[in-house]
Amino acid sequence: MRFLVFISFFTCWSSLLYGQDKTFAHDSIILCQGNYFTEKRGADFLNENIPNNLAAWNQRAETIRAQIKRGMNLNPLPPKPISQPVIHSKKIKNGYSVENVFFESQPGHFVSGNLYRPLKKKASYAGILHPHGHFENGRFHEQTQIRSATLARMGAVVFAWDLIGYGDSKFIHHKDSLALKIQTVNSIRALDFLLSLEDIDSNRIGISGESGGGTQTFLLAALDDRIKVSVPAVMVSAHFFGGCVCESGLPIHFNQHNQTNNVEIAALMAPKPQLLISIGNDWTKNTPFVEFPFLRNIYRYFGQENKVENVHLATEKHDYGPSKRAALYEFMAKHLNLDVSVVKDKKGNWLEEKSEVLPIAELSSYNQNYPFPLK
User: Fold this and answer.
1) pTM, whole model, 2 decimals?
2) Has domain 86-363 been given CATH number 3.40.50.1820?
């Protein structure tokens, strides 16, 4: 009986998510996935599409944003559930707390995650979203835990949540054909959740994720104006379009009218603060002389060239390791007014030792007292 109830509940949710839009029946679907462009073609594409002025960019930005929404069938969004988030199992740590969370992002579909909060009382707090990439243990990975806890110690309320198919989000397979839409809606609802919390300053909202989490980062920043600071790590590329259906499994990059790439999508964040973190041994290896100059040109049209930055770590690997986290902390502190004194010594070293890595069992959204909410 429990299984039958779940199937019925999933079928109802699926019909809401898929909707009645006939976009895919009319458009010739060409998906831009993986190394869809060569490196040369990626660079040439950006050179061919540098706008002449701000008005030209604003017009193209509107076209790209509409294309993303149409490709994911986001008009309209699935209905926003009226159920309340469940926040439980608070753990007090050194300068911050961690709680376990789940809530509906659309009728019948639940987001699972962890909420990190500063212990120091303030009149208001910055809020930061932390999507994760395709790494083992997902949001439980030590890199996600450390950066979330450290930013909480700096004065931000941080929410990290599961990719579908990872962590506690196991009832939809990660390779679902609608993974990109599901995760984008989850990101929007994660932002709704963060802003629903007490004393969150809506003018100080940031997001940062690595790899596939970097894709979620620049997509949400492009689609939702409530994001004020964006830090996509090891992801923004002129030639690489994402290697998973959760990044490029729907026609957001190409249709019969227009071609775009992830650099142009990241540029939709302009003129708000954005940091690209790149490395030398993945698809971001060309960032200093291909992707970053394009973004800087777009920001220049707004008179905000200093709001976009690039930290390039030529010898590092594809992760969210200490050097990348240091760049994140510095950028978020500067633009979200966070306190670096509690996590940085006089020599400029970032002190992450008090950001504790907890076992999965302590962070799981569902347990005997808080079971998965089958309807």
Assistant:
1) 0.92
2) yes
